[in-house]
Amino acid sequence: MPRFATFLTCFCILFSPPALGHENHLTPAQKTHYIQSALEILNVKTARISKGQFKGHPSITFEIKNSGSETLTLVRVDIQLLDDQGRAIHQQRFTPVLLSEFNFAQSTGLLAAFERFQIPRKHPLVFDAPWPNWSGNVTIKIVEIDGSH
Questions:
Q1: From residue 61, how far is each of 20, 25, 89, 102 by CA, in Å?
Q2: In a domain, 9, yes or no
Q3: Of 14, 43, 63, 75, which sits with the fewest C-beta atoms within 10 Å of its C-beta?
Q4: In CATH, what number is assigned to the domain containing residue 116?
Q5: 129 part of a folded domain
Q6: How far, in Å, CA of 145 to CA of 26, rounded?
Q7: What is the pLDDT along the chain (149 residues), one digit of tens a residue?
Q8: Which residue range forms the structural domain that includes residue 51?
Q9: 111 in a structural domain
């Protein structure tokens, strides 16, 4: 029986549709409008990692508030690290919300309508290098979304 279950699981993963029956129904203009009118970044907290492999690297946690009626399966953000003069010294793209066929707990990949998605403090987004000129300040811009209905 365990071999059959393993086979069935592998078969389902390999032959399931890429987006779990999800169809892209928002036009680019609708996506831009939704980002500007229904999504908000809240409770931004930054720090440097204090130990381990990424010691000294900038990290960030924040919430994304969805005040619109769409359930989002993808949210991509660009985060800029700023120096003491407020100039961007580095930009990195993150995808905090992503629902795919590889998400076994589907709730972790969704930003439901009228809900919030939080990057947990125990698992912050970590940048790719220490960036010694970083002031601790950032800008966050939502650059891409996708939804389902």
A1: 28, 30, 19, 24
A2: no
A3: 14
A4: 2.60.40
A5: yes
A6: 9
A7: 444 444 434 434 334 344 444 455 789 999 999 999 999 999 999 999 999 999 999 999 999 999 999 999 999 999 999 999 999 999 999 999 888 766 554 445 789 999 999 998 889 999 999 999 999 999 999 999 998 75
A8: 19-148
A9: yes
